[in-house]
User: What shape does this take?
Amino acid sequence: MFLKGDRCYSDKCAFERRSFAPGQHGQNRFRKPSDYAVQLREKQKVKHMYGMFEAQFRRFFEEAERVRGVTGETLLIMLERRLDNVLYRLGFASSRTQGRQMVRHSLVTVNGRKVNIPSFQVKPGDVVALKEKQQKNELVVDNMQGAARRGVPSWLELDAAAFKGVVKAMPNRDEITMPIQEQLIVELYSK
Assistant: This one.
């Protein structure tokens, strides 16, 4: 779920090294999960990754189904365009949860207007900025330094000196580097 911070971006990530349970008998208790279990686990992983409840995630999926195109890719693009995720991708927040809290506390503006809805969908051309008081916050400055190691996606443009970012384009599926199999989520919801 990538909740361990920077360590999971290196070779020392515990999730990547071992695919079995910890302990003496961890390798012996392997049973092949059903197709439903695999699909459910993938949905739960994505849901927790973006910090959403089931009803909200379902609404996002239904909206992605209505839009023309591949449903799974559309869903991921909609999730990436959430304001709390954009703050995380720009490096203003160390996690999506922290980005959500910043939005809820009205510390963020979009195109010069205060927005306090974490699921707000940004569009190409939107300018996401932190309020002036937050620009002096040590936590935000530390987050920006940590994000320099992680990098900013190509669909976003960061102006670190002014503490603002511009949405240049819609995100592509190729730019979402997290290990997500969106087809499993589509199969689960289409049952």
User: Anything to note?
Assistant: The mean pLDDT is 87. The CA atoms of residues 141 and 191 lie 46 Å apart. Helices lie at 14-17, 35-49, 54-66, 71-80, 83-90, 96-104, 138-150, 182-189. The longest helix spans residues 35-49.
